[in-house]
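Hey, I'm writing a tutorial for new members on how sequence and structure tokens pair up, and I'd like a real worked example in the thread rather than a made-up one. If someone can provide the structure for the chain below, I'll link this post from the tutorial.
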Amino acid sequence: MNDFFRGTKVVAAVRSEADITDCLKSNSRIVFLLFGTLLSVPGYVKQLKNSGKSVFVHLDLIEGLSSSRSSVDYIKSMTEADGIISIKLHILKYGKDLGFKTILRIFILDSKSLENIDRINSDDEIDFLEILPGIALTLIPDTVVKIKKQIIGGGLIHSPEQIQQILAAGAAAVSTSDCRLWK
């Protein structure tokens, strides 16, 4: 399995302009852009890329974008983003066709949330799987070992101890918006 996250176990999840400033000072080489508008995203991506960061744009969280192919086309033509994040599989499939790395974000709400693991494993359009909340990975070890994609644990992570627990549970990386943990 390709280890895209080698050397970066903590991904900076940026939610504001202040976060971008903190991210630019951090050692994290991978960034999840979780905010912005059609007008601001190209500039944010450029700033981050100019600092040597790999940038993934969360399509579902950008104001003015919809769940359509046009959103993917927009990010492709207006930015140099490395990848896209979405909860919508059809958007990721189209993004993969355009050369993006793709992250499917899923929320673990109950045992039913885990039913599609076999389908996710066999889907070549998904490069990585982000599971939220990340700490849930420590509660479902039998499921984690069945996942063949590299896993990112995200959400509700506020301590180095939680990061270590999530990595020990099988995640390749952890994404967090807590800038204190980006170092």
